[in-house]
Every structure is written in C-alpha cells, then in structure tokens.
Amino acid sequence: MKMTQLAFAITVLAATTAHATDLIITNGKVATMTREGAFAQAVAMKDGKITAVGSNASVLKLKTTATQVIDADGKTVIPGLNDSHLHIIREGLNYNAELRWDGVTSLKQAMQMLKEQAARTPDGAWIKVVGGWNEFQFEEKRLPTLEEINEAVPDKPVFLLYLYGLGFLNKKGIATLGYTAETRFKDGVVELGADGMPTGKLIAKPNAMILYTTLAKTTVLPRDEQLNSTIQYYRDLNRLGLTSAIDAGGGGQAYPDDYAVSLELARDGKLTVRTSYYLFAQKPGKELEDYQRWLTQTRPDKNEHLFYANGYNTEGGGENLVWSAADFENFLEPRPDMPHEMEGELEPVLRLLIKNRWPFRIHATYDESIDRDLAVIEKVNKDLPLNGLRWFFDHAETISDKQLKRVKSLGGGIAVQNRMYFQGEHYWKQYGAQTRQMPPIKKMLEMNIPVGLGTDGTRVSSYGPWPSIYWAVTGKTAGGLKLWQPQDVLSRYQALKLMTQGSAWMSGEEKLKGTLAKGQYADLVILPQDYFSMDVEQIKNLESALTIVNGKVVYAGEQFKQLAPSSPEVKPDWSPVKYYGGYQNK
After folding, report:
1. Quick one: which H or E segment has residue 276?
2. What are phi and psi of 160, to 5 degrees?
3. How far apart are CA 89 and CA 252, in angstroms?
4. Dist CA 482 CA 477 (whole Å)
5. Please, which residues bridge with residue 417 across strands?
6. What is the DSSP string of 288-316?
7. Among 487, 401, 395, 406, which residue's Cα sits nearest to residue 444?
8. Positive or negative CA dihedral for 370, 376, 382, 387?
9. Which of 247, 190, 181 is CA-nearest to residue 213?
10. Across residues 154-180, what is the average pLDDT?
11. Residue 384, φ and ψ in degrees, nearest 5
C-alpha cells in the first residue's frame, strides 16, 4: 500500500471510530418517559449520551464493528432512578460497618442476623443497625425488646437506631459508653430502670441529637475501609437502579473534611452514581460563618468527577440552613415550635446565598414551620430578588394549599420522600387519621410546582428507591396502612417521572436526565420485571437486571452477569455487607 493510500485509510478509520456508537440496547420495552405510554425498542449511546431511540431496525443502522450490542430480551428499560434527597456521601463512609435491616420481613430474621454478625465482629467494634427499618415491616409487628437484644448479644456493644425517636443499647454498649444515671443530654432522655440505672433505651425529645451523639461514639472505619465502603454502597445503589442522587448534607458531615473520600473516588472515576451535594451548616449560631467560608472554597456546578459530566458537583446550601429553622419529624413526639430567633438567623444566610446565586434547600415538615420560612424568603425577595434562582423545600408533609401558592409565586419546588411509609402509623397515632394527602403531591402537580421524589435514606428511611415508588402508587405504609384517598395515588408513570426527571430539577438537570431521548445522559436501567404491569405489591422489591451510567455498565445481575464490572472485596473482612449485602429485597 502506498503511503498516500495508508494515510487515507488511517484517516477513514479514525473518522469511523470517532463517530462509532459505543453501545446499543435492542429488543427492549423502552419507556422513554417523554410522555405517558411512549415506548421504543432500542437505544444507542456514545460518549456518555443517548444518540438515538427508536425501533431495532432504525437504531441498529448506527452499529459499527466497534459497537457493543446488548439484547434486553423484551425486558423493560427505564431512565436511571434519581433520588432527590439521599444522604449518600455520609452513608458511604459508614456502610460497611452497618448491619442493614432494610427490607427484612421478620423480627426473628433480623435478630438472627444481629446474633450472627456479633459472632464475627471483633472485640472493640460495634454491631450497629442504623435506620432504614420499623416494626411494621416485620410480620410480628413489634420492636425488639431490650431483653432480646441482650440475649442475642451479651458480650459486644450494640446500638440500634429506630427512626428519629429511639435508640437501643445493650448492656455492653452502655458500659462501653460509660452512660450512668447522671448522663444528661439537652434534647433527649437516657431511660432509667427501677434500679436507677440506664436501661439501654435512648429517647429523642424532640430532636435526634441524643441518638446522633451516641452514634458518633461508635465504630468509625479507617480511611482505606471508608473508600471501600463508599464503592460498595454506590454499587448497591446501582443494583437498585439508582444512577443519580442529590445529597442533602447532614449532621456530622462537615465540608470539606467528610467529603474527602468521595472526592478522591470521583477524581479517580470510581463513583458510579452521579452525585450533587448541598452543604449543611454544622454548628448552631455559626451557620453564616460556615456559608461565608464555603463561598471561598467551592461553587455551584463545579464538577470534580473524572469521567462523568455533572458526576460530582457542589450544588448549593441546605437542607439545614440554620439550626433554629429545623422542625424535627419525630412523630413519636408532638411538633416542636421553632425558637423566636429563627427569622433573625435565617435571613442573613438567605441574603448571602441569594446574592451569590447559590441554590438552596430547606428542611420543613410542618405547615407552621413553612409559614415562617416563607415569610423570611418573601421578605428577602423584595429587595434581593430570587429571579429564577433554584430553591425548594424538603419534606413538606403538611404544607397548605395557600403556602403552595406562595412557593409557586417564588419559583420554588418541593422534594418529597416516603417518610410516611415508615412513620405513617406514628403520625396517625399522634394526630389522628388523616384524609388529606401527606405530602399533597397531587396538588403540587396540579399547580405545576417542580416535584422530585426521594427517600431521605439512610438513618430513618431506607435508601431503597422502590419502596418510595411503591408508596407513591399505593399510598400505603410498610405495614400496609392505607394513608391516601384513592384519588391521591399516583399513576406508575407519574411516580417514575418524579424519581427521574422530577428529581433532576433539584440539581438543574431536568433537560439532561430523566428521559430516554437523544441528547440525554446515557443513564438507564433494564428491569427484570415490567414495572408498568407487574403486581403492584412487588414493586417495592424491584431491583436492576442491568444498570448503565454514562453509557457504561456499572452493575449486572444474573441474566447479564457476563457484563458485570469487577468489584473490590468488601473490607473489613467482618463487615455485615460481605455476608448480607445491603438492602434486603430478596
């Protein structure tokens, strides 16, 4: 071959390779989510984006010798799920040290897991169950007793976190912490028995600081194991079909120190869930100082992921803007009133964020709190206009129609979660049976307010996204209590849209993700069952058969196991994750 011919051949090959489609999914029931009932057969992807959606024949025209083709075998294909409120970064640091009862269906099984885990846990390490469960998911419909906990694990420290309301320590745990009759907490009670000594029950009154302060004294994984833990946690989220999450910050999650592990993995291209995070003020009375400092350290939409667009981004401020504005959703206790100084503390933080065009989110459970929050936002908006700046409330279970109109006029949104799936029975016991939808999602949608669906995992609710979708399409709790009126339940299309495109609004990505259409991020999931027609009671147990992020396979189930990427061994060797995994949906 002459040199000119060789050069031409190389040029043609390079051009062909440059335009080659990376991956095509064929023979699927592809839910494009561009509108209800819109299905296709195939999807083509290149350079992390979708390049075509349509029939097998039309999409396969893009196939080259370099294209990988995956046969979906008639299975349903959906956009990757996106949790608009998940404490993903914090849980990554702790996941390998926790025994998860998420999805466990009997107390007998849960206690057997606790006993088995204690047998393999080395001396000096805690056995911990940190949220994601309640008694109503168990067939026994009750909590474990302190006697049962002590019988199961008499010789190693145990801590169980139950919602925002209670903590349980075994006798070894009490001794390890050194809790006595004189142990005091500002917001919480160490229960004492007839002998005047701690029983092991910790009671939050009204907030959970007694529980989180105690949790902070338990086992902390070393740095190398935190790296491994984060990888394992993200992989379990991929197994459940999650491809994006918006981190709401959290107590004890200080920036930048507690973000160093996830940042390292992002820069190494090892995070497999696109992660946007809001920064959560850590110290009461010092919130303004936190945000002033953070303004010099980062900025919204600063992506630090090596391979993914919007793969690891600072997003804004919240969900805790100031501690005095927090109304803790401990439905075992009456609603707390926010202190009188709240408005004076919230206003300067809002002014700082709005002036610097930082999006913000704010935790608010009750309409009484939302009313006061809105008054401050409206006041600031008069002379420092929001002017399209993205902001939203988190939770909003009892927000009123009048308040929704105010949110709408200010251009705000609402991030809702399935906290009532875990706490509905407690709310009804505290306040009586309810006839109004909580949160009023249908009303929000009627008013065209942006709504995103999430979980608020992991310390109260589970991080499993499918129970949240199940709750949205049934209105039921984990124990089967029907919370909503028939007209309030969402269609399967509506619920899935809220956990995909709806949540994308909370990170300003609603035009980039959440549908399967040309130009969208190539984040999608093949399901083992058809979400749109399967038995509704089985939706909460769904997981992924194949998960793709940025056009690459990040998780493969049994049917596609030949495509599964390698995953590091779980560390430490005694980790509950190594023996049980995470969410128990089998």
Report:
1. strand 274-279
2. -115, 125
3. 11
4. 7
5. 454
6. HHHHHHHTTT--TT-B--SSSTTSEEEEE
7. 401
8. negative
9. 190
10. 97
11. -140, 80
